[in-house]
């Protein structure tokens, strides 16, 4: 019971610290906390003061002896005095619920680790100081290093079997990819074994203490974990730099300090059951090395199930493979612990030289295999494709990959700084005027209806893809209106994509510059023209839209993730029934029906009888519902005589990856399927006769607001390379195409940027998370296909120069000097 309580306590404080980091980072604060993405996490924050005190009482019950032990009573009593004093304070001043994306959250993330260190020190002083923890016969167990070797050999093979099997089912790979994956894993696991064994060797040189040996192994293990997390976690959540490195080092050390503390407590009464200090660390994870042989098959089945779960469930809502790769680390640890426990049980020993000899052999095998495959045509591309399906192999490659050249490192650092402006950076808003002398006009104003379907891909609409049969109403709407065939977003995520629509241009990658109103071109237009607004105020619009007496909120009290198109339209229709005649209406909503997190929360369900061959069924089935509700709303507008007196915009903020090369979601990527968007527009018949347009010309979501300015008679619309342009001109004017040939695109949440060129047919991506560049050729118009091209050094240099220039232009426009690192 004592160990279970301490395990729960460790989980409590690790979660608390992680939550503080989530609150500190602009992306996770905006997309996890502010949107209430995980309801259970919100409940946790509200219950935190009570859980805090409850955990304190439970832990104090496990330390009755320590409270009176002469060696530790003052330390233990001081710890709990401070602990409960802070607990009383938290009852009157809640901690987590008040956190924002500022330095307070960062400081809190460090403070949350303190109780774990405090308890580890108490256990080390009281339990670890006992003489019974000395190695009675150190030489009898000198072959622990060979046990580590066999455990690493078996666990690496087991991991390859789990993940290569998953890759085979998803991609049908056969042959040399598996062999190369095994060599990579053997190398990594043997190196990790050598490093872990280093702690044992150092401790034996000092004293014959299992506690010292275990503490040094724990320190080295924490260093290894910190290295993993620094490579995998920190770049993905944009927590780079000095503070990120310090935090991840202390976080990893806290985990293994807690694990070591659990080991001391687990074996405290019977230290003779363990052979070495490594057993102290491994023991709690190995359930105390159970004697029942039948337990081991169940344990193995559990590891296999978890690896399968991470492949199939986490992938759907993952952030740039982050959750899957973190789950791989868990599977690695559990597999090693399992094999260690099995071989320890059967007493599989051997000479100590096996571990270093094996590591050397696997190193030569690795170098030889990489040299051999370097000359095989297409081998590099095949490995890259395989790595997208085998998460364990992907992680291994990431760990063994050589650091980029100095020139590349400098560019990736630039990208990391340019696309990750911290919330604490002082940035003043720059007034944006798309039209001079903005004042209310006397002409009749059409209604403005803007519908942005979050995460909608263009190739899931029949207007763009003849294979689609589940969007008949949207296809009919497209036939009656205007379909822009070549539309894109500048941003691969809602956090920047949605505000950029309201601005009518690209924006600084900061969430958010406030007050936002001086830059909010769309709001200024509808305010000036006297529109009555019905707006679904999601978590972003709550920040960037200034409330006015003419603004009425749709979906009030509904969280962003619960915004649903049918409910929004039904509420809008009810409010429109009471509208005053002669007052123009502005309607904006951004439903989340097909957002990846909503699909995941619903269990990726598909109604009985519905099939969508060639499409991701959970997404397509929800889009069918969107289509039905949209069709009902259009019919309502037609019955009321509103349709032909309205400008209706149908679009999305960005697309989504739905299984391409194992990718799902859109958080940190700007692949073609993410930056391509649908864009339909309906104009009142009279207005349509006055205008001309080119549906094949390159269009961006940032062109929507400038187009509305123009259609309402606000022309000429001022524009430059940062702001959008009107997609329409009067028939008396000449329709001109943009003179700009290169367009900047970026992730909304991380350091991934790109350049779109050649009328949207070529996309360069610079990924400062994965430290790689790529170039794609995109199909034109309604062709949503694409293929990756080889990238020459000259092309890479040219694209990187364009990115630097584009970032400089955005910074100049907003009078921002940049983040100095």
How many β strands by DSSP? 18
Average of pLDDT:
87
Instruction: Please work out how many helical segments DSSP would assign.
Output: 28
**Helical amount:** 40-55%
Strand percentage lies at 5-15%
Radius of gyration: 30 Å
Show unreliable segments: none
Strand order of the largest sheet: 2-10-7-1-6-4-5
What does the model show?
Helices cover about 50% and strands about 10% of the residues. The chain has a seven-stranded mixed sheet with strand order 2-10-7-1-6-4-5. A five-stranded antiparallel sheet has the order 14-15-16-17-18, with helices on one face. A two-stranded parallel ribbon has the order 3-12. The chain is built from 28 helices and 18 strands. It is of the alpha/beta class and about 800 residues long. The two termini are about 50 Å apart.
